[in-house]
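Entry
Fold in token form

___
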Amino acid sequence: MVNIKKLNPESSPRAAFGARMRRFREQRGWTQEELAVRAECSSQHVSAVETGRKPPTLGFARSLDVAYGTANGPDSFEREQIELHRGSLLAGFPEYVSYEGRATEIRLFQIGVIPGLLQTREYAEAMADGDVQRGTITVKQAAERVTVLMDRQAALVRARPPMVLVVLDESCLMQAVGGAEVMEPQLQKLVEVASMPNWIIQVAPFGIGARRSFLLPVNLLTLADRSVAVYAESQVQGHLDRETTSVLPLMGAYHQLQAEALSQAASVAMINQLRKGTS
């Protein structure tokens, strides 16, 4: 007997997409193989999207609409896919998270806000609430975003945790996200994390000017097989790249950035000085 994975459409927008996709398929009496033929993809891909292991692409959603006859309607899969990726998680980001949870080394550079892996829950909620107030995500999507972030942080707590190296642009410390009641414990968390043996936190001060290696945030991962990956995102989409020829130069640029940044001791001293201004 085939083992059919039960789906919980309430667990996430991606799960809801997969559950609806399966419901439509079963209503028509199709197997995954039969839907795959109609959607011009593999049955493995149909299974992965149905069970939430892969996010649906826009092209795949349009293929479903052709197969199910739902194109251009209010209940089209294309519309649901657009809403899904306009919501809490950027396209490309779930793939990055799957690698992040298995990385042996993580290198981060962030501008403007504290990186997610270092955010307190209150800071993350304040960030998500700002998007809700602007109407870019729903309250439910904001809650999902915070849950994903907390899960990412929990994945780093393991028997052999990754080495995490973080360079914060000074602007990350200057944005008063959520006000003093949020920023004081957030800065305190940075100080506490910096004391852990597998974390190095440095601040890239405004004074380095043009010597700053990156104009945008960047995430660099080293995996167990020593291969490397880079993740970067625009306002609307994320992209994971594992091509050595494009990733290795970024690794070199990151090392140059670390050399220009303040030492960890000087960075912690700056953070503690800012903490005095929030208390």
About this structure: Residues 32 and 46 are 6 Å apart (CA to CA).
